[in-house]
Amino acid sequence: MRKNVLKRAAAVVLTGAMLLVSLAGCGGTPSSASASTVGSSSATSATDSGAPAPTKQFVIGVAEAQANDEVTTRRAYFENFIAPTYNVKFIFSEVLKDDAAVKTFIENCIDSGVDAIIDFKSNSAQMARLCEENDVVYTVQGIPDMAPELMEGDFPLFTGWSGADNAQVGNLFRDWLEANASEDGSEGFLVSTSLAAQGNVQHVEVSRAILEGLQEKYELTYEKTIDELVASSETTNVANDKNILITLYPGSPNKETWLPGISSLLQSGKYAMFLSSGQTYNQSATAVNEVEQAFGIDIKVASIAAFSTTLTTAFNTQDPNGNPSVDMVTVKPSSALNACLFATTYNALNGAIDTACRDADGNAANYRFQMISITSPEELAMTEGWDDRDTGTWIAGKEFVDSMLVTNNPDITPEDINKIMASLNVESISAMMEKA
């Protein structure tokens, strides 16, 4: 850890207003790189332990790639729980569309005196180098094989990657496909790859998992590699040796062109399976419903989701066939992922990057988390109150976060943190929530 990081960290006394003025006052800053600052609000759960908040205050910038329930929940978790509990401040970006916007946001954060960046958009050596040059700790949501330069480079202030266990996510989709797809694949599969072509790590991981699941179920040989297919920015029919119809549709559901495009494909009547690497089930619900009525078919929908009122409504709203409007979602325990990202960043800021953020070979650590599959209103009901931003009830409460912090466990290692993250499942989370 460089001395300047700790020097500046100890001296940070910026107020929220100063941070806002710094960011808003940078000439030439695109709107996508504007930000807001939090850290002064309190949360009931922050004082449950009765322990005083840490006295050293760090400032962390959060670079966002999208705007959906997951992002709203993350911001509430950081703003209302982590900030007051651990005496940190956060600067949140707006949606960052490309690396240029991320770079501008990070530069503005650096000008405002941040100590660290948590990056949900980029996974690149360029951003790590920018942070390195300015004595700023850098943490990403991602996977190492998406960023070989970052993996192979020398970045002492890079803490590592936190992302979904791709094999486990793939198994969730594969298990669901095995139980719900036909034996011959004749129904047709429409796959929303979301922002995978732009490098969004979650979308890349899940798109890969879907294609791998279909490949395994039907023993397919694709003409192109899965990486090539996922990286396509155009609507693509996946050529395969059994001529099963698999169509990849890229793009963000937040764009005006996304819904008309997906609706047009669905209205062809060729698809009875709609699989999404992002959170799209809510945007596409009306289009799916109209096609089901017009063709008298049941389109099965599987998607990524976050715990929210939107998800509850989807599972409790019936389509024309009497089925929920969504059939399967894989939900990440959002607060747990964000707790892991915060913990690794906080450990580095507290001088433990060489022990708490390095694997046995001395490389930046690779942290994995498990996703949860939900296939019915009854299963969803079991998760009621989990990561509820309205009530401030979090899966990753203070005891959970503390277990990953070097300030509480001086000998904590990435292996220890991965064991903690791997322990999360419906049963263990239920027990944690009951205890809370």
TrEMBL record:
Entry keyword set: Signal
PROSITE patterns: PROKAR_LIPOPROTEIN (PS51257)
Signal peptide: 1-24
Protein name: S-layer protein
Originating organism: Ruthenibacterium lactatiformans
